[in-house]
User: Which sequence fits this backbone?
């Protein structure tokens, strides 16, 4: 079924240039495209929202009053999962998912303590962004820095 609706592919993209410098740029561009293609930008906010809500609902069944730092669990758990499932590279994509996690935790704690809800919500955003950063190889870091400097375009 996917074969029918697949977009046409050009054979011009697969032609490797003869010049060594152009071949290097071609290979780097191809690697950068593959790096960006491995991201799951749409699914990461969805999984972040669902995961955070599931963890908060599960924590509501715990008897007694839990310390407020327990509410850092959504950022830690969901951040660790998104690190390997979402494979986010850009900070703006990590920020979107982090704000969703922090916002949900903020609204879950708002009625008990508004000030602490703000602090814990902000800590959730920061912890999520720190944890979900994808580990990159040296070559991938080099490609991303070349792209940010404008020497390479995906």
Assistant:
């Amino acid at each position: 079924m996917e074969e029918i609706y697949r977009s046409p592919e050009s054979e011009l993209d697969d032609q490797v240039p003869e010049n060594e410098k152009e071949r290097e740029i071609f290979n780097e561009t191809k690697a950068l495209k593959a790096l960006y293609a491995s991201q799951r930008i749409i699914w990461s906010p969805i999984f972040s929202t669902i995961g955070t809500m599931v963890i908060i609902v599960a924590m509501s069944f715990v008897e007694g009053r839990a310390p407020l730092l327990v509410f850092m669990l959504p950022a830690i758990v969901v951040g660790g999962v998104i690190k390997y499932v979402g494979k986010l590279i850009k900070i703006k994509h990590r920020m979107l998912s982090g704000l969703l996690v922090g916002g949900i935790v903020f609204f879950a704690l708002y009625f008990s303590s508004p000030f602490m809800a703000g602090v814990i919500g902000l800590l959730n955003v920061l912890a999520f962004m720190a944890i979900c950063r994808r580990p990159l190889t040296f070559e991938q870091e080099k490609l991303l820095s070349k792209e940010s400097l404008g020497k390479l375009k995906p």
The mean pLDDT is 84. The first helix runs from residue 2 to 5.
